[in-house]
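Work Package 3 (structural annotation) set out to generate three-dimensional models for the target panel prioritized at the project kickoff. During this period the team completed the workflow that converts sequence records into discrete structure tokens, so that structures can be stored uniformly alongside our sequence database. As a representative example, we reproduce one entry of 138 residues exactly as it appears in the project archive.
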Amino acid sequence: MPTDTVGLGAYRTTQNQAQALTADPHRLIQLLFGNLMMTLQKAKGFLQRNQIGDKGKAVTHAIDILLALDEAIDEERGGEIASNLRALYNYCIRQLMAANHESSLEKLEEVQRLMLEIKTAWDSIEGKSDDSKAATAQ
């Protein structure tokens, strides 16, 4: 029996949009990080299977997510941590651009490792006070 991948994709898109519309700011960042990690994993798979066009699309999507995360930074409230986070996002964007151009699995994995650390830290602040959240990352 064939699978309805178009229908499944539409369902996931609708579900993700519904989550984004009802999520608080902390949860929105979690959703972005989750999507980023999934997209980086897809990019690695495409690269390993030599699906260069799909790899390029996945890397571009990952860069778009990093740009959205960068836009969400509040440097006034986040201070030095926010500045460092912005620098890390920019570094990761440069690494992704190089990974795409060079078809470098190592650079994709480096970005994946770095962003997993940030995602884990972000996930750990759930439930802390708003002041603590602001000082920690955004």
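The CA atoms of residues 49 and 104 lie 13 Å apart.
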